[in-house]
Amino acid sequence: MSITESSPYEMVAADPNRVIIFDTTLRDGEQSPGISLDQGEKVEIAEQLARLGVDVIEAGFPIASQGDFESVQAIARSVSGPVICGLSRTALKDVDRCWEAIEPAARRRIHVFIATSETHMKHKLRMTPEQVKAEAAAAVAHARTYTSDVEFSPEDASRSDFDFMCEVLQIAVDNGATTLNIPDTVGYGVPAEYAKRLADVRQFVKGDYVISTHCHNDLGMAVANSMAAVHAGARQIECAINGLGERAGNAALEEIVMAMRTRADYYGGIDCAIRSEELARTSRLVSRLTGYAVQYNKAVVGRNAFAHESGIHQHGVLNERSTYEIMDPAAVGQGESQIVLGKHSGRHAFADTLKKMGYDLSGEALNAAFTRFKELADRKVELSDADLEALVAEEVGDTLNYTFQLVSVDCRGGSNTTPSATVVIDRDGEKLEASAEGDGMVDAACKAIKAATGIDGTLTGYTVTSVSGDVDALADVALRFNVGGLSMPGRGLSTDVVEASARAFLNAINRIVRVQDSGEDPTKVDRPGSLR
Ligand code: KIV
Ligand code: ZN
């Protein structure tokens, strides 16, 4: 199966076993607490999602902020293949704004939602059921004047009165919705009950439409609920890479796809167009850019998902992989590292290798990435594909336009020496230098950076992991820095933990400066959960 130019609705109509994968990493996933991706990062993730083979990318919620609008528009302009979808409330100006953002895409969808549960209508919307019906009708009809691909969601569907929800769904179909999504907004559903709700919707709501799942993970059942619904006839699954999303997250895309493929015997021949070998890479990219680490024992993409500790298991796998592995690690891109570049590799081999990995860098971005590659290759004998991905993720995006660039960090420490650090930072050609002492060398480097940039604040989170898990692996530091209530993530990579920390710290400062300069406060951005 492959992505065709036909609409998802037509694909399912032509092949009833075809399941549409609707990725919401950039919309619901980006609503995870603490995630704030910039435009370049969102486009990079969207490009990787296209490479992965998702059918629909929900690129954002254009009315939420100018930044969201511009990111959705940038994705619509540059990412080809999947349908580009924008989320919209029922207000007609929201629908207009959504359309404006997605219009440049070759294939586009408007996703309209309004809550139908009693508690949401009464306490959040402050609308009567009749008003909700009228809003749904008007918004869907208006969206249809722009595109034939319109999705409708009755928010908090799993806690809505079934008959009322079906009335609203019928209104949506009658006004032109071609996908009906049944969100388990608060993760309240259990598999058999949620599946029955979807099967009943199919029976009671008349018309031609694809039925879709959207499950949250508050009780840890998002994937189980989604798969039960597919078994009951749903043909679109809304999910996010690494299970990102509001609160406990959405159904994890990688788990959905591998459940479908590994248990094809049970699910009866359904399939999707995902290129599963891209799953691990997509997971790593999203983790790196969002600052959300993937737990070691996470299904499918966790570092230990294919690691065997006990002697009995090791013996079994060595004799016959299927004794303890139900999936081939290579099928999800968790195979052995295939790409090895070292300090003798030239720019051409470097660019060529990146291209094979799907990163088409040129010009300044290629120069910057190659310079960093040489620096790292001088200190580490071989760079694996995971190392290269981390490096590219650090160097592309907006980093070239950042205010501050780290020139050097030198530190001293040890059992009998007070830790100290000296940093040199470039700001538009001007060299800023400062030294500081600290509780440790990382603390000293951060203090020196604060002194050099003149930006003060509080470090609110700090984790260091190794990119590939080897002793000589690159250190990958993720942290958060808070300046006057504005909290930003930062990420840095180096063979040296202090340098990786300094890079991460400066990365967070650069993001803060950029937000302050743009005048936009991301903490004030409206999100669906907080909207009327
Ligand atoms: O969880 C939810 O209800 C949503 C809707 C906006 C589809 O994310
Ligand atoms: Zn949701």
Describe this structure in words.
The chain is α/β, with parallel strands linked by helices. It has three domains: 27-290, TIM Barrel; 307-395, no CATH class; 404-524, Alpha-isopropylmalate synthase LeuA, regulatory domain (Double Stranded RNA Binding Domain). The protein is 41% helix and 18% strand. The chain has 18 helices and 14 strands. It has helices spanning 8-14, 39-52, 66-78, 92-102, 118-125, 129-146, 162-174, 191-204, 222-231, 253-262, 264-267, 279-290, 311-319, 347-356, 363-379, 385-395, 441-453, 497-518; strands at residues 20-23, 56-60, 83-88, 108-115, 150-155, 179-184, 210-215, 236-239, 404-412, 420-427, 430-437, 458-466, 475-483, 486-494. An eight-stranded parallel barrel has the order 1-2-3-4-5-6-7-8, surrounded by nine helices. The longest helix has 22 residues, at 497-518. The two termini are 40 Å apart. The structure holds 3-methyl-2-oxobutanoic acid and zinc ion. Zinc ion binds at residues 28, 183, 185, 214, 216, 245-246. Residues 28, 183, 185, 214, 216, 245-246 line the site of zinc ion.
What is this structure, in a nutshell?
The chain is of the alpha/beta class and 532 residues long. It has helices at 8-14, 39-52, 66-78, 92-102, 118-125, 129-146, 162-174, 191-204, 222-231, 253-262, 264-267, 279-290, 311-319, 347-356, 363-379, 385-395, 441-453, 497-518; strands at residues 20-23, 56-60, 83-88, 108-115, 150-155, 179-184, 210-215, 236-239, 404-412, 420-427, 430-437, 458-466, 475-483, 486-494.
